[in-house]
Amino acid sequence: MSSIRLTQYSHGAGCGCKIAPDVLDSILAKAGPVAGHKQLIVGNQGREDAAVYDLGDGRGMIATTDFFMPIVDDPFDFGRIAATNAISDIYAMGGTPVMALSILGWPLDKLSAEIAGDVIAGAQGVCRELGVALAGGHSIDAPEPIFGLAVNGLIDLDKLKLNSRAKPGDLLFLTKPLGVGLLTTAEKQGLLEAGHHGLARETMLKSNRIGVKLADVKGLNAMTDVTGFGLAGHLSEICSASNVMAQIDFRRLPRLAQAETYRRQGAVPGGTRRNRDALGKSLPDMDEAHWQWLCDPQTSGGLLLSVDSAWQDDVERVGREFGLSLQPFGVMKARESEALIEVVG
Predict the structure, then answer these.
(1) pLDDT, tens digit, for every residue of 32-61?
(2) Whole-model pTM?
(3) Is 337 exposed, middle or buried (0-12, 13-18, 19+ CB in 10 A)?
(4) Looking at 15, 127, 239, 295, which residue is catalytic?
(5) Residues 150, 151, 153, CA angle at the centre, nearest 5°?
(6) Catalytic (active site) residue 15
(7) Rounded distance between C-alpha atoms, residue 233 and residue 239, angstroms
(8) Positive/negative CA dihedral, 73, 77, 80, 84
């Protein structure tokens, strides 16, 4: 089993496989917004993390799906990371995940069914730990390995967190450091030092279950998770939906310091440039280090928070309960230009 390297069987990796935001817009343009469903309070508009259906009793059902090709070689870890990542969308809305279905595409002519079973077992372990019932799913014979989950969750609607509610003066927080894309690319290129093996994996495996507790903070105005579009992509979605702009202090941005060495060696994912190009004028001209970090595709990244400054202590207190030292790295401002993000430091 140790000789299996799943990443060699796919052309992409993790959330870096995501279709670029501008291309996705062109795909969705023909579909248009969902109409005729009064109980559907969040649909395909606004680039939210999941859909939300009003159950009529003060609660909403949250529904999402996420799947990708292997970002690690070990099948069990692939299943764990994919499950952690998919469930994160529920937490990003402030909800509690309750049930999931698996999505499996498997090249049976190249990889055995037993290996696919290890992937499912990894996902099952994460679901069990987070109290989610992995109740079944669907599988196909596919040319590349693909795995993920469709997840349902529940939310008290007065605690629902959306991208469209950020306000000028809000402070920005991130619950996980950036750099996963740089580290996994360095590993593919054979650059990763022995002491750094497993660093990206452990970061990706950290659950975003803190989102349930953060939903209790009334001054947390907007929340999303940072995945394949990078911090800049997901932050720009909040800015666009809320008609604000963000100022980032690059020196305070949570980053995996070990990844900087590999960035300088050129271990930059292809998705990084794709993210930068997709943002266009939303991201102003900046030096290479800045945009490569801001556009680094994350897999199972952290939660991005936009918080009323009066509630800063409450967010930091919740962070400490989960073993995190949360500190603001930026602020929301009134929209001043075409750019949605500016960087200082």
Answers:
(1) 666 668 899 988 776 788 999 999 999 999
(2) 0.92
(3) exposed
(4) 15
(5) 160
(6) yes
(7) 10
(8) negative
